[in-house]
Write a structure and sequence with these properties.
Layout (H helix, E strand, L loop, with lengths): L3 E7 L2 E6 H18 L1 H31 L6 E5 L2 E5 L7 H26 L18 H16 L7 H11 L4 H26 L2 H27 L4 H4 L13 H10 L4 E5 L5 E6 H9 L16 E2 L5 H8 L5 E4 L5 E5 L1 H14 L1
Parallel strand pairs: 2-3, 7-8
Antiparallel strand pairs: 1-2, 3-4, 5-6, 8-9
């Protein structure tokens, strides 16, 4: 995720912090200092850090449960609105998805129970209103918020945990695409009501969370539909076969002329034998031209891309595409047969959906 940086690894996943989280922490600390002095700022900051430690634990609950089903979690990112565990994929079996979804809130319930039993911390909403953070109140406030986090995450607003449980339950009676569409629709309705509540109460954070849910629900629904169509197609169905290629020794100036003359956004770079050497992206080309490096060799700024064969499924192509500009389709001698971009996969999906 852009604007985030790693701070370490935990249970095989990279732990990242988004810059905006640090800005939020600084803002809350400064506000507490201005209102109640340095001691209040210190304990408020400690409270926020402990709270987000609980959020990280919540996300690793998902990650560790997913690992039981062979699904890796490359990273967990801390955001102002919570945490985000980026699983390689969600389990497609409804029972497994329910367990992965419930694992996060279960961690918060365990934290609440531990704080309540060890510290006798009362679970009262009044602990969160009107009371400054202090050593004597911190366990109760932290316990209360963990219970609230568990309950809030179980709201059936896809793609929140409760929404994923809803999708899995619906998937027991219908196909995954339909179940996702139903859960996403329900999630967007809940997000709309949440945003309305936030606007009426002046709670900006609730509005931001609602916006995230609304956009993420639509995006994941489209992604699931795309992958369902992709299972029926192969790389040869999506690849671009008409293109202009460059050589590693060509100058960037020549590439710029080719860009103007064609509609390509990226250019395969082939050696003298027709083997793939790399890809030149439009961004890399613009960057080189902006630095007045028109004489630079294409080979010096090109990048490598993943490769597939003609018979590989389109779902495999999508997995390898990731953030890469393209996926190359090669024969056994690594000659380029064509290439696939996210844009032309999207066009193919639109055509495939209209024929269904």
């Amino acid at each position: 995720m852009t604007w985030s940086f790693p701070i370490g690894r935990l249970f095989g996943s990279q732990l990242r912090v988004h810059v905006t989280f640090l800005l939020l922490l600084a803002f809350i600390g400064a506000s507490a200092w201005a209102e109640r002095g340095p001691e209040a700022a210190l304990w408020t900051t400690i409270f926020i850090l402990l709270l987000f430690t609980c959020v990280v634990a919540h996300e690793f609950g998902h990650a560790l449960m997913a690992r039981r089903f062979g699904i890796r979690t490359p990273d967990v990112t801390l955001l102002p609105i919570g945490g985000l565990a980026r699983l390689e994929k969600m389990p497609e079996k409804p029972g497994q998805e329910i367990l992965v979804a419930l694992a996060g809130p279960a961690v918060n319930v365990v934290i609440w129970a531990v704080l309540t039993l060890l510290f006798g911390a009362p679970t009262e909403p009044d602990q969160l209103t009107g009371l400054a953070v202090a050593p004597s109140t911190l366990p109760a406030q932290l316990a209360t918020l963990n219970l609230i986090l568990a309950i809030f995450n179980m709201i059936p607003a896809f793609p929140m945990d409760g929404g994923r449980v809803l999708r899995a339950v619906v998937a027991l009676f219908t196909d995954r695409v339909t179940a996702t569409r139903i859960a996403a629709g329900a999630g967007q309705v809940v997000a709309f009501l949440m945003a309305l509540t936030g606007l009426m109460s002046g709670n900006l954070m609730l509005v931001l969370i609602a916006g995230f849910i609304f956009i993420a629900a639509g995006g994941e629904s489209a992604d699931v539909a795309m992958r369902d169509v992709a299972r029926k197609l192969m790389a040869r169905d999506a690849m671009i076969t008409e293109y202009e290629a460059l050589r590693p020794e060509d100058a960037i100036g020549l590439a710029a002329t080719t860009l103007i003359r064609t509609t390509q956004h990226e250019f395969p770079v082939l050696d003298a034998g027709g083997h793939l050497a790399g890809f030149l992206t439009r961004e890399a080309l613009f960057h080189a031209m902006a630095e007045d490096r028109s004489d630079t060799r294409v080979g010096d700024v090109m990048q490598s891309v993943p490769a597939v064969t003609l018979r590989d499924g389109l779902e495999t192509v999508l997995e390898r595409l990731g953030t890469n500009p393209a996926v190359a389709v090669l024969d056994r001698e690594r000659h380029l047969l064509g290439y696939i971009t996210r844009e032309n996969v999207g066009e193919l999906m639109v055509i495939a959906n209209t024929r269904r």
